[in-house]
Amino acid sequence: MAAGRPQLTLAELAAAVAERSGGRLAAAIDGDGDRYIDAVAPLESAGPSHLTFLANVRYRNAVATTRAGAVVLTAADHAALQPATSVVVCEQPYAWFAFAAQVLNPVAQHTPGIDPTARIDPDAKIGADVWVGPGAVVEAGTDVGVGCRIEASSYVGSGVRIGANTRLYPGVRVLDECSLGARCVVHSGAVIGADGFGFAPFAGAWIKIPQTGRVIIGADVEIGANTTIDRGAIDDTIIEEGVKLDNLIQVGHNVRIGAHSALAACVGISGSTTIGKRCMIGGEVGIAGHLAICDDVVITGFSMVSRSITRPGVYSGGFPVEEANTWRRLVARFKRSDSLVTRLKRLERAAGAAPDQEEDDD
Amino acid sequence: MAAGRPQLTLAELAAAVAERSGGRLAAAIDGDGDRYIDAVAPLESAGPSHLTFLANVRYRNAVATTRAGAVVLTAADHAALQPATSVVVCEQPYAWFAFAAQVLNPVAQHTPGIDPTARIDPDAKIGADVWVGPGAVVEAGTDVGVGCRIEASSYVGSGVRIGANTRLYPGVRVLDECSLGARCVVHSGAVIGADGFGFAPFAGAWIKIPQTGRVIIGADVEIGANTTIDRGAIDDTIIEEGVKLDNLIQVGHNVRIGAHSALAACVGISGSTTIGKRCMIGGEVGIAGHLAICDDVVITGFSMVSRSITRPGVYSGGFPVEEANTWRRLVARFKRSDSLVTRLKRLERAAGAAPDQEEDDD
Amino acid sequence: MAAGRPQLTLAELAAAVAERSGGRLAAAIDGDGDRYIDAVAPLESAGPSHLTFLANVRYRNAVATTRAGAVVLTAADHAALQPATSVVVCEQPYAWFAFAAQVLNPVAQHTPGIDPTARIDPDAKIGADVWVGPGAVVEAGTDVGVGCRIEASSYVGSGVRIGANTRLYPGVRVLDECSLGARCVVHSGAVIGADGFGFAPFAGAWIKIPQTGRVIIGADVEIGANTTIDRGAIDDTIIEEGVKLDNLIQVGHNVRIGAHSALAACVGISGSTTIGKRCMIGGEVGIAGHLAICDDVVITGFSMVSRSITRPGVYSGGFPVEEANTWRRLVARFKRSDSLVTRLKRLERAAGAAPDQEEDDD
């Protein structure tokens, strides 16, 4: 990946970041703007040609002693941490670092073409500058936009639309009639448009309900490895623009995920649930079906959501581990909480106090 | 998918449903039996040629104002909701709707044949009317039943048996010696028969135990995208007839799942556990190993099962999310429940009451 | 799989196990050392040519009546259970059984060669005795060690190194620049080296941070079906030697897993977390990012780890299911624990006791 990596001075890098961010990320350089920078690196291992930043507050002590050629910091951190190297001072160091890393690591250009072992249906429409890898399949009536990459052994069903410059890594499956916007990235093993889980009980067995909806994915969506997004039962499953899905996520049929929401790995979303815009869902969260989560909701990892959420904010539901014996005792006490309440009531009665109405209700 | 969709009158549709259900689903039409119906649609967006139904009690208000050509309801809902359109009145609207959707959305017929890029071992036996897609592989000693579809880049190992009319979507893997019954549907990325997780600790490392069992799958089983079913360690892993597995489920070695059980996405079942017939397991449930869950058990989503269940019924174990500050306080209190009990005991002693024996045990 | 299975006397089998374990597993035979053994089998179904062992304490009663040709037991179990058949007496029956199963079930030798439909880049280096299956792809600059198997439709990117005798089952993906040690086993659908989940928030959207690290995997690692291991963001993701990962596990970017740790299915590990050596992580455990778990930690299934663990031991965090009505009442009480504390304080004040300082803090 290091091949052909660009080398720029710190000042050139700052100019490139300003341009890439549409002029919205201003920065001042305190130090040597003529120093050459050729890569990003972690605080502790960065060398003199590397750019680094403060990824986590736990690593603050490493800033002062970093050997990096430059570090990106807020003005406050710059003043407080006093690194011995050049500093890019800006308001959003993480975003600045992200753009700089993009500048320093341009996506390798692919050679357009169709591998001779790929199977493209004559009724598929393949845009200019597309690469279709070995063993990949594109079925009839499908439209692959300019600049796309359909990598090795990926499968694109019939009637699919893929926007310009979208990339399917090796082994992605996009089933019939689904669509992806421009500039999407889909990682290996993701399955888009498998049947939703729809069965009606009848006479001791399950009757399959044909899943006739589609999956509609907006622009700039990234989908992690082995993530599954089911097609709608009747209506469509919808992933709006800019959504980022990590690996091994399950998105049930008729779910809608609002623009720019980000979901960490192993999240499961049951059917017909709507998630708002700009939500952040932590790893292994489970969300029941037919719920509505409003915009700007944060759910911390390992939580269960079984009711709709109507107010923006942070929500939690997980218990941190304890040493096993302690945990066993806590769980045992929890399961005996009835007896605790009984004892409390007995004492209250003995003391002549009126027990809480609320507690008497259950 | 709309291509070649049948168009029937409501009366013809009712007759087709009656036939498809083996005469077990009677219905009366209140309204215009001669109206043409060509698709199913949700209550809110259905138009005059669409059939709809009440998918969830939350949508009851939409029944009265639906523009659908017909709606399937129980007699009670029909009387209570008084829709302005034709009504199919029956005892099991969901099942009736499922059969009707099947009639209106027949599975597209595949063209039998073997794609020239598929690799069929000369010692494999391929039944009549089978389709093997591009890049698919069928190994020696394998028997693929009549009417099966083995779609693009799927892999079927050696000594496998696949019953008639079973469909493997693109990218399914069935490893050596496993078997599937008739009319199964396996979605993309599912892996059937990978090694179970069997290692013996020895001298600070792990010694692999060869996984010599198989996976045996009954008829009419559906397996979701990227679900994994491990082969048995010595005995077989068994999925009985009519079982429905959603996406991203893990079934450990030597598990048995009883007929017509349905498991939602992201469930994990550890090795050697037996699940009874007609069970329903919610999403993200985790079930420990070497347990027995009896027939007719319902486990709600996000629950942990660490003991056998011997009585049919509904079981739960998840905590719904709270606003994060509230949750933190609740967890802190929970972890101090020892001190609560101590204080209670102190009060009881002061009041001259004998503390509960049970509480003194721990 | 039974084809070509070896047949040995019990004494010959014991000698083979002794050799395979490097002489570290001594055993004494009490009974007929000349009996032929050709397979391992479970206690209950084993026959006279089968070796069996006590897999779980629940099955102790079955030892006395087993029809197996031989059973592996500790001296204590031998004395206590008195089986009517030959006994292999040793200190570590499970490890002895594992080695014996390996002897009785040798891995089938593959025929070296490159399937004509595989695509090997001319700049890839393929060692002796390698098998590359149909539709598999090996990109430029990659080095595949002697004796490897790259099975059907697997994908190996550019600049990858794969150690000797490693096996990729059908449909594995190893992305650019990653490396695997010798004797690894990677099951179908696993994805090694997809991009980590790295995005910086900026102006209401997410800016992708190029994931320029690699995945580095040691020798003797086994990786389950559909498991995903993300490449590092800048530094590498590292899986040390002898680690065993079950199915559907997510390993985030820059995670390090120490040697000989074993993780059960559906575990999720967020980015930059370090797990020590010889840890055992139960199924569906979730581990937050930027944590350090020390060596020799056991985490039981369905636990959430949100802080570092610095002492070896067993840790738990899951609540076992209850009958649903009981559970609902317990959760309701839990959510009202504030009121419980309030009532307790009221009683304490009435009794003239000083409330705990700790409880007053929140």
What does this molecule look like?
Three copies of one chain form a homotrimer. The first copy, chain A, has 362 residues and is an alpha/beta fold. The first copy, chain A, folds into three domains: 8-104, MurE/MurF, N-terminal domain (Udp-n-acetylmuramoylalanyl-d-glutamate--2,6- Diaminopimelate Ligase, Chain: A, domain 1, 3-Layer(aba) Sandwich), CATH 3.40.1390.10; 113-315, UDP N-Acetylglucosamine Acyltransferase, domain 1 (3 Solenoid), CATH 2.160.10.10; 324-360, no CATH class. In chain A, 18% of the residues lie in helices and 28% in strands. Chain A has seven helices and 40 strands. In chain A, the strands form seven sheets. Chain A has an eleven-stranded parallel beta sheet with strand order 8-11-14-17-20-25-28-31-34-37-39, with no helix packed on it. In chain A, a hairpin with a 2-residue loop joins strand 22 (199-202) and strand 23 (205-208). The model of chain A is unreliable at 358-362 (pLDDT under 50). Chains in contact: A-B, A-C, B-C. At the A-B interface, strand 22, strand 23, strand 38, strand 39 and helix 5 of A face strand 4, helix 4, strand 40, helix 5 and helix 6 of B. Strand 39 of chain A pairs antiparallel with strand 40 of chain B.
Offer a few descriptive terms.
homotrimer; 362 residues; alpha/beta; Udp-n-acetylmuramoylalanyl-d-glutamate--2,6- Diaminopimelate Ligase, Chain: A, domain 1; UDP N-Acetylglucosamine Acyltransferase, domain 1; 3 domains; eleven-stranded parallel β-sheet; ten-stranded parallel β-sheet; 7 helices; disordered C terminus
